[in-house]
């Protein structure tokens, strides 16, 4: 039976689409590694090839700069494997243009094609459901006249595991944060209220054109800078709460520490309840940032 299928770009071996398989069997994982290594070196081999990998056979064909690979059980008929690849190739060429393949910037840009791969794989894994859409006799004759090239595993060289990990780590879509709850939305609104109140407190000082007392002028300038810094940090905390950012937990803790320092510096301009309100809102925002985690990876993430 067909166990795994993948479509890659011949020029650089970048995967365009692949079947979503959750089988963690060691031998199949090794065969997948061989297939992905073969995809990166497909431009070194003829148009139609196959190779042995443990208890599996790997088949691939090339067309218009695209490589189509399949990992099958050793007992699976070769003619059906190439018919399977030929059908996937025809559908892929109808669905996507060669310009689309060349413009693709990230791995698995056409992951939606996995739906067709899965349906086709299911049909070929149950020979009773196969219809006359495939012409086995023509493929058998073609394989007899032009036998596929048998690739020796030594021709691939050692598996470059480092390159493989680097390639497929970025294959999945950008992960998002879990949906924002009503509690998080309320805290975000309270943070915006804190920022607005402090900004309004700062406006009267910005309206002064000149002040005679130089010491007082410096004090008011420093006060204005402190309030603006507080407003900026509160807004940045809201940003960290809403969006997935690298090092968001560390940055939120740093912002919280600076906000506490600024609140302490500005304490003579507020009463106890105002100070408590600002501190509690900052603490609640920090807590929600830590609680709002990334969403779980979907099944087709990093195929």
TrEMBL record:
It is a single-pass type IV membrane protein. It is found in: Endoplasmic reticulum membrane; Golgi apparatus, cis-Golgi network membrane; Melanosome. One of its GO terms (molecular function) is SNAP receptor activity. GO terms for biological process: endoplasmic reticulum to Golgi vesicle-mediated transport; protein transport; retrograde vesicle-mediated transport, Golgi to endoplasmic reticulum. The chain crosses the membrane at residues 60-85, 179-200, 220-242, 249-266. GO terms for cellular component: endoplasmic reticulum membrane; Golgi apparatus. Belongs to the synaptobrevin family. SNARE involved in targeting and fusion of ER-derived transport vesicles with the Golgi complex as well as Golgi-derived retrograde transport vesicles with the ER. This is Longin domain-containing protein. It comes from Nematostella vectensis (Starlet sea anemone). The lineage of its organism: Eukaryota, Metazoa, Cnidaria, Anthozoa, Hexacorallia.
């Amino acid at each position: 039976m067909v166990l795994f299928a993948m479509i890659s770009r011949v020029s650089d071996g970048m995967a365009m689409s692949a079947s979503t398989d959750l089988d963690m069997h060691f031998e199949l994982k090794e065969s997948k590694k061989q297939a992905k290594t073969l995809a990166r070196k497909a431009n070194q081999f003829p148009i139609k090839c196959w190779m042995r990998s443990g208890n599996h056979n790997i088949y691939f064909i090339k067309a218009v700069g695209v490589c189509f690979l399949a990992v099958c059980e050793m007992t699976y008929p070769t003619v059906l494997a190439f018919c399977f690849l030929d059908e996937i190739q025809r559908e892929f060429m109808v669905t996507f243009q060669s310009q689309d393949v060349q413009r693709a910037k990230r791995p698995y840009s056409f992951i939606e094609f996995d739906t067709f791969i899965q349906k086709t794989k299911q049909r070929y894994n149950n020979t009773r459901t196969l219809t006359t859409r495939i012409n086995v006799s023509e493929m058998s004759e073609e394989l007899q006249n032009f036998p596929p090239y048998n690739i020796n595993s030594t021709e691939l060289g050692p598996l470059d595991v480092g390159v493989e990990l680097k390639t497929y780590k970025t294959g999945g879509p950008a992960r998002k944060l879990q949906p924002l709850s009503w509690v998080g939305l309320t805290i975000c609104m309270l943070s915006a209220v804190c920022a607005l109140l402090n900004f309004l407190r700062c406006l009267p000082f910005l309206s002064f054109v000149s002040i005679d007392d130089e010491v007082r002028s410096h004090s008011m300038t420093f006060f204005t800078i402190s309030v603006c810094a507080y407003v900026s940090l509160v807004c940045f905390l809201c940003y960290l709460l809403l969006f997935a950012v690298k090092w968001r937990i560390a940055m939120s803790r740093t912002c919280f520490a600076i906000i506490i320092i600024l609140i302490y510096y500005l304490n003579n301009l507020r009463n106890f309840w105002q100070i408590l309100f600002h501190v509690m809102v900052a603490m609640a925002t920090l807590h929600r940032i830590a609680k709002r985690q990334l969403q779980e990876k979907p099944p087709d993430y990093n195929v």
